[in-house]
Design a protein that fits this description.
With 564 residues, the protein is an alpha/beta fold. The chain has helices at 12-18, 58-61, 100-113, 124-128, 151-157, 176-189, 206-212, 219-236, 248-252, 257-277, 282-285, 299-320, 326-329, 349-363, 383-398, 413-435, 439-444, 447-465, 493-507, 510-525, 531-539, 544-555, and strands spanning 39-42, 48-50, 90-95, 117-121, 167-171, 198-201, 240-241, 243-246, 289-295, 333-337, 368-370.
Amino acid sequence: MVLVRAQPTQSRDAARTQQGCCGTLDWVCAGGHGYAVNMAGQTESGFPFETLYGPASLADWDPDIQLGTPGSFPYTRGVYPSMYTGRPWTMRQYAGFGNARESNERYRQLLAAGTTGLSVAFDLPTQMGYDSDDPMAAGEVGKVGVAVDSIDDMAILFNDIPLDGVSTSMTINSTAATLLLMYQLVAERNGIPGNALTGTIQNDVLKEYIARGTYIYPPAASLRLITDIFAYCKAELPRWNTISISGYHMAEAGATPAQEVAFTLADGVEYVRAAIAAGMDVDEFAPRLAFFFVARTTLLEEVAKFRAARRMWARIMREEFGAKNPKSLMLRFHTQTAGVQLTAQQPEVNLVRVAVQGLGAVLGGTQSLHTNSFDEAIALPTQKAARLALRTQQVLAYETDVTKTIDPFAGSYVVESLTDAVEDEARDLMRQVAERGGAVAAIEQGFQKSEIERSAYRIANQIDDGERVVVGVNKFTVAEEEHYEPLRVDPTIEAEQVERLKVLRAERDNAEVTAALDELRRAAEGTENCLPPMKRALAARATGGEVANALRSVWGVYQPVDIM
């Protein structure tokens, strides 16, 4: 690949004189004139700012068309033609703690502060399919997210929030179908149809077996449920992103950027194959696939990682699966700054880390972003810390010039070289996954987990040896840390949730719930889509734990095998 320095494509006057040839006032055609151009304003010195920079022709840039133009194959430079010059990314803040009422208050505070999308954190019992009164939930209710046991809790969680006017992301995997249906039922109670709802469920169970552990059912059953969600949403929730295939948690477990890309895309390939095997056409479901990556402080490699991932996915979908819809080729992704890089020592330094990480995500072309709060290494974020995290995104969007031009690093010697290097390493790792029979078979053999653990061990040794500097931890330390008062979850919440469940079970029509759960079991035993009977059970006020237990009775529970 021959690298060249990027140059402005043409002057303001040249852009004006050539606008007519393409029949548009916004873009100038690439054929013979250079890349598309639209004036985005001026620099601080008064120089004209172009929305897109590049050579006079694609042939001058790259004979292999590795880059292309934004919004076109292979999407190296971004999935949309105008990227942030049209509008900024969606600003999400991941929040949820205690009970539904407290989390609802935090959501409304974030919306008032300018958040454009919500991101829900659920507590571990909710993630694992246990009600708050289950012995397995003891001590964990409301601790790492909000406790949602029934449609009643979901209604409180989104009280006074217009669900047809906000995009909601739910970080939920094994019980994704249950929480999505609760959300839909609450919207329907408020007169909002499914086709008006926008958002994402994470719904990526394969990475749970690799890096996180909140799985319930064996992989085959989990894939069955995921394909049921794909089919259900195509008919009932057409604007909903049905899965967010996640590399974030692999990165948090120690994966390198290349491993993050490789194992995430390998999981994506497995989901696509499962959906096709279930009888779906690739172009029916692939446009609603989304991805989720981390943004580390190593800004240049992170930018390269995002660009490489887009290019790889576009080629996989076109060449391996024959996708024809351009939207099926687009790797659209959410980014979260790296929680694992936050430190409890000198926590205010995390504000700097998060700003750098967020900048890397934006320069890499993310579609939505969550910036961590500086105090998350200590406890759940305080209201002030959450607001500062949001303000970080707003400074990037409105005070810097990164939204004025598309793919600012295109043509950079180092970034283009790193993009190729990440892609080459990721392709090799994907080949090793394929040789083991695909993502599920490789998971069962412990391949991805062992590769990530080796990387994590190497990083830990580098930090211990001082080879890798962590400011405030192994260098630039202080003799005495300032006291910081963290947010604490009210310990009475668990008792309150248990009491709410007691009242719910006394008030509802238990015969109706039992009949609906029996119908769900029959669907799980056969080939019928599980979501319609699941929705009927939840509408009758079945709990999330009761739904999960119905499926456990049919599919069983996954027991991992230690690979030593």
